[in-house]
Amino acid sequence: MNVDKKLREQKYREEGVWAPVGDEPGDGVAVHIKDPRNDRYQKKLQRVEKAYRTRNRIKLRKELTDSQNVDVIFEAMYEELVDDFRGILKGGEEMAFTQENWLWLMENVWDFRDRVVALVGDEDIFDEDNLQVVEKNSPSPSDGS
C-alpha cells in the first residue's frame, strides 16, 4: 500500500475533482465533484430533508416517496457534492453554476442527470491513476481548480 498515494486520494475526495460528463471525451463538459461521504454533504442532506418536510408538511415518521427523495438529494448535492460545472451550453451561452441552473439541469436534462448520478457512485473517479487520464482529456479549468 502506497500511503502517500492514499493520502493524496483522500485529499481529492475532500476537495473534489473534475469529472467529464460530456458526449465526447475532451469536449470540456465536466462537473467538479466531491466524495458523497463527506460530512458537509451528509449534514446538508439532513438540513435539506428537514426543510423539505417542513415546506411540504410531511411528518418525520412518514417515509418520503422516491420522487421526494430525489428532490431532496438533488438540492443537497448543490455546492456540497457538486460545486461547479463547465462547458454546458444553453441558447449558445455557457450556463453559470447556480442553484437554479443546477436544479433545472437535474430535472430537465436526463442524460446529464444520469451521468452525474453515475459519477457519485463511482469510487474510481478519485483514484489518482484515473485522474491523470481524465486530466489529459479535459481542458484546464480557468480558475485553477
Describe this structure in words.
With 145 residues, the protein is mostly helical. The protein has one domain. It is 52% helix and 12% strand. The chain has helices at 3-15, 39-55, 66-80, 99-108, 110-120, 128-136; strands at 17-20, 30-33, 82-86, 89-90, 93-94. Strands 1-2-3 form a 3-stranded antiparallel sheet. Strand 4 (89-90) and strand 5 form a beta hairpin. Helix 2 packs across helix 3 (66-80). The chain starts with a helix and ends in a 9-residue tail after the last helix.
Catalogue the unreliable spans: 141-145
**Considering DSSP H and I runs of 4 or more, what fraction of the residues is helical?**
40-55%
Q: Strand order across the biggest sheet?
A: 1-2-3
What percent strand?
Answer: 5-15%
Which structural class is indicated by helix and strand composition?
mainly alpha
Q: Quick check: average pLDDT?
A: 84
Rg over C-alpha atoms, rounded to the nearest angstrom: 16 Å
Main sheet makeup: 3 strands, antiparallel
Give a count of the beta strands, DSSP E runs of length 2 or more: 5
Number of helices: 6
Order of helices and strands: HEEHHEEEHHH
Total count of domains? 1
Report the end-to-end length measured between terminal Cα atoms.
Answer: 27 Å
Which outline best applies?
A: globular
Question: Would you kindly provide a brief summary of this structure?
Answer:
With 145 residues, the protein is mainly alpha-helical. Helices cover 52% and strands 12% of the residues.
List the SSEs and their pairings.
Blueprint: H1 3-15, E1 17-20, E2 30-33, H2 39-55, H3 66-80, E3 82-86, E4 89-90, E5 93-94, H4 99-108, H5 110-120, H6 128-136
Antiparallel strand pairs: 1-2, 2-3, 4-5
